[in-house]
Hints:
Helix content: 40-55%
Number of strands: 19
Strand content: 15-25%
Distance between the termini: 13 Å
Amino acid sequence: MExxxxxxxxxxxxxxxxxxxxxxFEIANLLIQRGIEDFDAAKNFFRPELSDxxxxxxxxxxxxxxxxxxxxxxxxxxIMVYGDYxxxxxxxxxxVFSYLTAYYPDCIYYIPDRYEExxxxxxxxxDYAKEQVISLIIALDCGIKALxxxxxxxxxxxxxxxxxxxxxxxxxxxxxxxxxPKQNNCNYPFKDLCGCGIGFKLIEALTQERGLSFEMILPxxxxxxxxxxxxxxxxxxxxxxxxxxGLAQIRKNPREGIKLFVTGxxxxxxxxxLVFVIAPRLNAAGRIKHxxxxxxxxxxNDPTEALSRGRAIELFNSERQVLxxxxxxxxxxxxxENQEQNNYSSVVFQPDWHKxxxxxxxxxxxxxxxxxxxxxxxxxxxxxxxxxSVKGLDVLQMLDSCKDHIEKFGGHRxxxxxTIKAEAYIAFKKAFERAVAVTVKxxxxxxxxxxxxxxxxxxxxxxxxxxxxxxAPFGPGNMRPVFMTKNCIDGxxxxxxxxxxxxxxxxAIDDSRSTLSGIGFxxxxxxxxxxxxxxxxxLYTVEENEFKGEISLQLKLKDIRF
Length: 562
């Protein structure tokens, strides 16, 4: 792993900011690195205000969307709320559906089946809408490229409002309104809302239209925070505000559907918990059974019912964990058997791999082989694949160069999906390897970590941590600070821990003679060199550790150098 140091801010700027807001040198540097250089910017950063959210009517198409929904309600039309089966989709559906049904009951929701229908707006979903006498579909977190199916719906007398955050193509679907800040002619100031964020802006506009106060939609903001965290969108601008208040709500009054997942967290709940505790469980419903079960859970108000549904989803998540571990092992074996360890890409296939976990498996393979990865499974006469990439490599561009071998593909820069004909597998695999080989730079084949600054252990105090933690919520665009410390030695208590003794419990002392403990997952192979009193350098973040009811600071290790 390569370590890359971010440049320190100018010393004069650091001193001015220190004086103006009363923070340590290190905190001032971290803030300036994030573009925060004066009192007002710091105030807005540390204390986000809901009043700084943008007017929803600045979004292109919002007036048309609100008018069409208002007309549907006035004419007693039946409305379908349609969303994807991932966290962004299911939270979006739960948000808009629960908002509408609070005052207009003639609504249903629909989540497509991952296996029968795939991602996005399906013909089966539209046919179901026709059966249910639906005349308006509000699509969330999908639809921006559903040209054929929106036309099909229009022919059947069904209107679409599309609320999507994915990049539009050259042509737009037939819809009465499209809400997507990424449209070329949309002047909405913030472009990085997730699907649920756009759903929130829609209900904000509807609330204004009804002449009601903004406060009435605050109970829905927790859903937006979950979606922002799960969809890995930048936690800046509006996303920072929405996440900040959404987290506060979950901490204070979590909805019944997620209480089972968060009650065991003793320290203050953060974005990491949303990503690694809540999101995998909500996703497990769609991966193993059906995404509608996640919506049911999020809508549950009865404690007994919510607990029962939460336990069922816990079982789905446990099944998912077993599956992804087993398939990962098989995929790694396949790479070795094919002697592809030194390839520029990983492309693997097995017909019986579970479609719901192949995206997770692709991410696992990147942990072993740092390169763009495609994992395929069979789906009828076709192969369905999940694609994951590494920093700086846009897989959509690489897939586009292989489009002669692809039936369809779509997604984001670093995560995408595709479908190919079974007979095209070998040709695609060769084409994808060529596409990566001609694109990747030598330095992009090595994982790297950018760290914020070098620091001595004596600077890491409870007060320092409290101030640093006020920079949360952390996430893309505002990552948790990464520090480097030199000249560390074993304090005498370092040891291997965990059921298989694969993890490192570090007892570190540096030149300041301060001692801090750390945890390094999968780093126990360093223990002999640490115990031999060799000096080492540490790369880490700082977190709180709760053990037997006591909370202390610890280093969460990213890497060790001797």
